[in-house]
């Protein structure tokens, strides 16, 4: 269990969740059916509340999302949003350090928190009759956090260990971090969410307190509760807890520096003794739901599905099944960002192939897409798949809560989430083709190549051994 | 006194009240229907119509531990190729039908079992079950698919080799289960994956997937009446009995030894382990509570509190009880910067010794019981999770009433029970330590997989 989120993997997972969420299923529900049918209200102090009823079990997922993330940090203070997220578990006047999570657990709940570029969120999954308890605790730490050096400094070491574990011990993660810093040359999305080590080690208690006072307030937060609860039941509890907190008059506007035009293809090759399997990746800037040519966001989701959703998708079929150049290929479009989104493709060369062959084959496939477009049948089939996913998204306690939290902290509205199926349904073949040109037609992408060291150290022939801990999942490459 | 302080006080009182009065949540009764087909195949069903979704999971006995020595990875390769075409449908045709109907079908193999999973909308269920039956009974194993999957498994294996956790697991198996099937790499090696033939896959599907020992779990929008005949059509054509080579039981070896996998990385990955307890042991519930207090309970555990919260030595450390068909373990895993590895291990062993001698406190017992019982309903929030839980209960032979009596079993555990189990189970001197990295201040008894 961790008090944080891994930016990279987490962002990916959420994108999938939200995409999964954002669907209605015209095939299944009448056209008027919405995705989650949430209820919403706003407290007098400005705190927005979203309730998603799901009575499958007598439990709720209670989440508080703050409209602040690592991209809102000042230069030189990278990692501060995430550091504060850890420190939020360190106590208030009435809650001793480490008592928060213990209290949640003692009441049969699970709690955690995570930080991303655009948001920081805290949650407790717990029996519905314990909801008022966690709301009181979460409201308390929204404004009453107490931090002292003896508590704060050991936690900074924990975060340094977290960075070593997630990033420095893992060559692929190090490459990913470098690629983002090269893609976004000026915007803070180029700075890792966890922070650079040389800045993490200088973060102070005062830094954390200043950041907390500036950004943590009910009118900069969103409460999302999903599960066995209705708005009528939740509202009095919300008024008793969060409703008593005074709003802040000084919430800073979320104005980040904007990217200058960038030009030219850029490339990083990282070689590492630990690496045995070469890998290839390319990232483009793309519109998000909230920034850039955002009218193309839905078309890009359809494009993503055509290119890389399943074993019969274009890229897998061409590179893996037919040409046998790649063992696997992935494409991921992330539209959930306050500023620009990204589209990335990664591929692993098949045995006997190399990254140059993979790159050439992908370039050819993308060129074919840009000149020849997509077919009506591909668009229709992708739209059906996407809309069906909405039904699956409803079968989850926390998924819907994530979807609304991400949407509302990245410039979207509740209505936007609910209208997702309509937007997908309205996408045309022409829009998909225009969107493809808009993003994949850019030449200012970054390419990352992960390679074994020139003369890879031979590993002593492995005497049989194995991990009793984890049953191995069948490790298929690709997006199948 | 302003309003804020009032809230604080009220909140505080509330917390105190909960701490004193809360013993356990009302158990959310789980209504499981035992469905038996005309042909005698049994499935457990939790019916729910809130979403038009059906999730099915099933398991055959025997998994990766049965792979022949020269063909390690066979069970996983078979699982990965079973959905690559069946009957008249080649791989692309088969996968195309899954994709266009939004059906998720997959197979996997692990220790002690071979598992299938199916998730479908109710409106596509007939197609979904048809495809599943085809995959189970008429998998094609076309050369194109076999070679493609082999390549994927080989590249995936090589990719894992950049991860220190891969080497930790390799060293762990070799050290604790030397010469035993559990000690071998279940994903195979480059050589063993290369040695697997199409005939091996065909033979595996023909001889290992059988009705005896089959467990089936279903959750979602389907009735028992609909499911019963379906079970025969899905599984009825399989042979009655599987051909399973015997596997011996083994006790974790190398007690007290420290094995190093040297790697030039900034952080040392560590696993500590010794023998544990069988799932069928009457003391299992006391051991579960012990493990929660020791290291299974996240931020409510002693390991996390001492190693992370107080000393800042790690991002995460935890323990777990693991019971397999032929061995059992209690393990600790975590990671720390190289020059703190010795301290982290020393603190872990101190905690181990202290709990072995003194057990846990009354408060820890109560906290473990309220968490383990109170959090149970969190596992019943979606069809896939419910099917998974029903399958696990069957595989552990716990009985169809288990879910409704589990909380009572946990609440019946006394402090004396935990103390007795701690004394029996925990021994710091027997912990085997596996390290990957370049830890300072530690002299290993041996090294493995030198670069």
UniProtKB/TrEMBL annotation, chain A:
Keywords: Hydrolase, Metal-binding, Metalloprotease, Protease, Zinc. It comes from the Bacteria. The keyword Hydrolase applies. Coiled coil: none annotated. Pfam families: Peptidase_M16 (PF00675), Peptidase_M16_C (PF05193). Transmembrane segments: none annotated. Its cofactor is Zn(2+). GO terms for biological process: proteolysis. GO terms for molecular function: metal ion binding; metalloendopeptidase activity. Belongs to the peptidase M16 family. This is Peptidase M16. It comes from Niveispirillum cyanobacteriorum.
